[in-house]
Automatic annotation (TrEMBL):
It comes from the Eukaryota. It comes from Ovis aries (Sheep). Keywords: Calcium, Cell adhesion, Glycoprotein, Membrane, Repeat, Signal, Transmembrane, Transmembrane helix. This is Cadherin domain-containing protein. PROSITE patterns: CADHERIN_1, CADHERIN_2. The keyword Nucleotide-binding does not apply. Gene3D superfamilies: Cadherins (2.60.40.60). Residues 1-28 form the signal peptide. It is found in: Membrane. Pfam families: Cadherin, Cadherin_2, Cadherin_C_2. GO terms for molecular function: calcium ion binding. SUPFAM superfamilies: Cadherin-like (SSF49313). GO terms for cellular component: plasma membrane. The chain crosses the membrane at residues 688-711.
């Protein structure tokens, strides 16, 4: 069993507040009504609404009801009229026994706000019980030698009524020997004594039979009678006398059966059988008395368990009778001492099982406590466990309210199991526990929250319509409809973005779907916002950003810009037979509309008239001679170059080149980059002289060759045009093609392939590459689909 200090540390005590509240209540007035007992059920007691100054309708709106200890319904309240009526016929003797006055305490409970009003109903006694003797006949043995004026005690009659309705007087049937005298006892009851008026003579009349009548003070009075039979015996001069006229004793209510209460003792001065004393309960009520006396020893012992709460005092009268019939009487006053054998009782009057969250101070329960024990055993302390957002608030006498300490948050805790403990102050301490469950109902105070503030989704182009591309997810910590989330697309910030035709969202689960096939080359990325709204009232919502990136697919084959494949006549490249290895014949220029490695292009020689004569650089598409040309090499060469991207699977395109080997050409070749680097290196003077001499001789030789070739060409007339690239009338445009790097070329080139001055000489001149002028990747689609744009791109 825990000690009081330990419990004080564990629980919040409300005893001090309760005592203060009780002291305050002691000065307040209570409503008290009075009515006779045995009034028929349904009878009118009072109009509570009028007595309390309340409107009739206010009782109904405030949930008025009557509370009585133990929840036993004795009264009923008509909340429509405010009338207080009897629920059943009330018997004062059953409810209060011998207690006077008989007051029934009840409370009027009002809600919104909580208010408790104390009221009392006093039952007044009516004369509904007649006096009744426990024995039909009393036997008195009186010696004939008894002197006149001798008093003989008689047994009393019982009357359950109180006040003037109980026994007020005793009478005896008319006779010449006795009269009866009525006396007051210490507990307020009246008892009779028989007084001898005339000496008895056994020889004349050995026995008398008298009628003793008990009368109450009711109107009309009620009565009860018994027979007093008197036997006249021979002389016995001394009656037994007790050592004490009153014995006072205390006995705990939990005393075991057969335990000794007290021993009484009487002595008789006579001898023989006249001096032998026998003890007995004077009233002889062994049914109601929980005691028994040993007729020889005078020891009074317990024959039935005691209950302090039922009866606290007993007055037991003991008679000592000798062998001659004389008797003496004493009173044993027995006080039952209370022990802490009753645990406190808790009566719940009002209970709210569910409280909305975020509510201010709210009354959860109203209850009363009681303990039938007395003194310290009947003092009580009510408490709840620490750590709960509730506290006990004393309201009226032993009434308490359980109140929330602060607004509750359902998301923090949705259910509270509260144990109310009522402990008395007795030894040992007894307690009663009452468990209640309080649910916190949800309020829509939390907006949905996305798992991410932004989502990035990838989708490969050329997807099938209605493709699931990803999901967004939001959670709501509320419950029920307040936690049901609906997803939606929000209007995009860019009004030109056709979001409704691009994606859709499942409102129930947040799945996103692409509604149309996406094209990386047309739309590489777009973003929009999605909303999550709950179904509370009012509804709460939140937003998240979704970014959709379109992944490129290898769906575009390389497109050859140069040489043109749709010309009316193929373009022929001229290569002098004196060209050195590495001589730049031409450059294949191609682009790819894809991105990344799908646009990385590589070149390779697929077919050639003379294998090994030409080579193609894999990374830039330059076609160069691989060895020295000889007279045995065919003058017309046909090359097929394959252009392939790096996608998966790879796509490719091929181009056919026509190369014409000629015997003479000014500036016979463009030196490769290595030759240029070597030319840039400084030379010694001897080398310079040799180069100048050799150049002079070569120039004379070449000039002669050119003159010879020019004469031959002039003779052939129009035949010379077949050896030139098909060009428009007039001057050929200065810039033939511009190829910028698209992720696959090492550098940008711009070439002048053909040049004519309109002189008819038919001379061709090959120039070195110069700087690029504009990029091509962003215009690939336009170049592929529109020939006019393509030609303009190439020749302007």
């Amino acid at each position: 069993m825990e000690t009081a200090p330990a419990k004080t540390l564990q629980k919040r005590q409300v005893l001090f507040l309760a005592i203060l509240f009780l002291l305050w209540e002691a000065g307040s007035e209570e409503i008290r009504y009075s009515m006779p007992e045995e009034t028929e059920s349904g009878s009118f007691v009072a109009n509570l609404a009028k007595d309390l100054g309340l409107r009739v309708g206010e009782l109904a709106t405030r949930g008025a009801r009557i509370h009585y200890k133990g929840n036993k319904q004795l009264l009923q309240l008509d909340i429509t009229t405010g009338n207080l009526l009897l629920y059943e016929k009330l018997d004062r003797e059953v409810l209060c026994r011998a207690t006077d006055p008989c007051i029934l305490h009840f409370q009027l409970l009002l809600e919104n706000p909580v208010q408790i009003i104390q009221a009392d109903l006093q039952l007044t006694d009516i004369n509904d019980h007649s006096p009744e003797f426990l024995e039909r006949e009393m036997l008195l043995k009186i010696p004939e030698s008894v002197q006149t004026g001798t008093v003989f005690p008689l047994k009393i009659a019982q009357d359950f009524d109180i006040g003037s309705n109980t026994v007020q007087n005793y009478t005896i049937s008319p006779n010449s020997h006795f009269h009866v005298v009525t006396h007051h006892r210490g507990d307020g009851k009246k008892y009779p004594e028989l007084v001898l008026d005339k000496a008895l003579d056994r020889e004349q009349q050995p026995e008398l039979s008298l009628t003793l009548t008990a009368l109450d003070g009711g109107a009309p009075p009620r009565s009860g009678a018994t027979t007093v039979r008197i036997e006249v015996v021979d002389i016995n001069d001394n009656a037994p006398e007790f050592l004490q006229s009153v014995y006072e004793v205390q006995i705990p209510e939990n005393s075991p059966l057969n335990s000794l209460v007290v021993a009484v003792s009487a002595r008789d001065l006579d001898a023989g059988t006249y001096g032998k004393v026998a003890y007995a309960l004077f009233q002889g009520d062994e049914v109601t008395q929980p005691f028994v006396i040993d007729e020889t020893t005078g020891e009074i012992s317990l024959k039935r368990a005691l209950d302090f709460e039922a009866t606290r005092f007993y007055n037991v009268e003991i008679a000592a009778t000798d062998g001659g019939g004389l008797s003496g009487k004493c009173t044993v006053a027995i006080e039952v001492v209370d022990v802490n054998d009753n645990a406190p009782e808790l009566t719940m009057s009002r209970l709210i099982s569910s409280i909305p969250e975020n509510s201010p101070e709210t009354v959860v329960a109203v209850f009363s406590v009681s303990d039938p024990d007395s003194g310290e055993n009947g003092k009580m302390v009510s408490s709840i466990h620490n750590g709960l957002p509730f506290f006990l608030k004393p309201t009226f006498k032993n009434f308490y309210t359980l109140v929330t300490e602060r607004p509750l948050d359902r998301e923090e805790r949705a259910e509270y199991n509260i144990t109310i403990t009522v402990t008395d102050m007795g030894t040992p301490r007894l307690k009663t526990e009452h468990n209640i469950t309080v649910l916190v109902s949800d309020v829509n105070d939390n907006a949905p929250a996305f798992t991410q503030t932004s989502y990035t989704l990838w989708v490969r182009e050329n997807n099938s319509p209605a493709l699931h591309i990803g999901s967004v997810s939001a959670t709501d910590s509320d419950a029920g409809a307040n936690a049901q989330v609906t997803y939606s697309l929000l209007p995009p910030p860019d009004p030109l973005l056709p979001l409704a035709s691009l994606v859709s969202i499942n409102p129930d689960n947040g799945h996103l779907f692409a509604l149309t096939s996406l094209d990386y080359e047309a739309l590489r990325a777009f973003e929009f916002r999605v909303g999550a709204t709950d179904r509370g009232s009012p509804a709460l919502s939140s937003q998240a950003l979704v970014r959709v990136l379109v992944a490129d697919a290898n769906d575009n084959a390389p497109f050859v810009l140069y040489p043109l494949q749709n010309a009316s006549a193929p373009c022929t490249e001229l290569v002098p037979r004196a060209a050195e290895p590495g001589y730049l014949v031409t450059k294949v220029v191609a682009v790819d509309g894809d991105a990344g490695q799908n646009a990385w292009l590589s070149y390779q020689l697929l077919k050639a008239t003379e294998p090994g004569l030409f080579g193609v650089w894999a990374h830039n598409g330059e076609v160069r001679t691989a060895r020295l040309l000889s007279e045995r090499d065919a003058p017309k060469q046909r090359l097929v170059v394959l252009v392939k991207d790096n996608g998966e699977p790879p796509l490719s395109a091929s181009v056919t080149l026509h190369v014409l080997l000629v015997d003479g050409f000014s500036q016979p070749y463009l030196p490769p980059p290595e030759a240029e680097a070597a030319a840039a290196a400084p030379a010694d003077p001897l080398t310079v002289y040799l180069v100048v001499a050799l150049a002079s001789v070569s120039s004379l030789f070449l000039f002669s060759v050119l003159v010879f070739v020019a004469v031959r060409l002039c003779r052939r007339g129009g035949a010379g045009s077949a050896g030139r690239c098909p060009v428009p009338e007039g001057h050929f445009p200065g810039h033939l093609v511009d190829v910028s790097g698209t992720g696959t070329l090492s550098q940008s080139y711009q070439y002048e392939v053909c040049l004519t001055g309109g002189t008819g000489t038919g001379e061709f001149k090959c120039l070195k590459p110069i700087l690029p002028t504009f990029p091509l990747q962003d215009t690939v689609r336009e170049i592929k689909e529109n020939p006019t744009v393509r030609n303009s791109f190439l020749f302007n």
